[in-house]
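To: structure subgroup
Subject: Chain for Friday's discussion

All,

I'm putting the inputs and outputs inline so they're searchable in the archive.
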Amino acid sequence: MSSAASTAQPARSALQATAEPGWVRWSLIAGALLFLSFFLFVPLLAVFVEAFKKGWDVYLAAIVEPDAVAAIELTLIAAAISVPLNLVFGVCAAWAVAKFDFRGKNLLLTLIDLPFSVSPVIAGLMYVLVFGLQGWFGEWLRDHDLKIIFAVPGIVLATVFVTFPFIARELIPLMQAQGSEQEEAARVLGANGWQIFWKVTLPNVKWALLYGVILCNARAMGEFGAVSVVSGHIRGSTNTLPLHIEILYNEYQFAAAFAVASLLAGLALVTLVIKYGVEQRMKHQLAAHSTAA
């Protein structure tokens, strides 16, 4: 009896040390909900209210307007190119960092985080300095009738730069936590590199990979700063959805601007729902891995 009491006492003390009074917990929850209401829910609701304020016909006209359609197409093209490129890079970088030790590993990790520390506007300026008409390769590009800045290739390059950390940064911690025991066992059993990747590595990281792809795609479709610098703001040609929204708003076409903005807001909501589902899958996968370990 005394042993049980002595065991329960530290547990009770630890609970008392970490537990907060009810009013503190409810105050924190209320503060968080109030913050989210004013800075997230209300602005998001306002976007849809303003988008449909003048009726469905005005909303639909803003969406199917030729410049809007061109902006939607360009946004999808930029995402369709940049996300697969970042997928390949993210998987390769994560596999290299998590499974191997090599000289320059810390440098690679630093370079992966570079877009998080560099302003997107600065990233766009870097591409202008390299590929612009007065840039390092500007004269060569002009002589060969190649156009990168103020064209689709520049928009894709800028999008790739600002989005490439997302997939790698989701995979690296998980792959490091999983270790390389399963891959080594598969190698001992005679599997080659591709078989190890498809049969062992990929199934273990598939939900983290999907999570990273979702975040990468959302950022690619919503990127403004870097794309704004390299696009040239040519209506119907080099404007993505965020740039088209800015132009409409600056021209006081508020109904059209909010209508197009509702597309990105809807994408954000869909992304959040999918993100939540993938997070739950990842938690189950981590729990299963911990149990097996």
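Points worth raising on Friday:
The first helix runs from residue 2 to 18.
The mean pLDDT is 84.

D.
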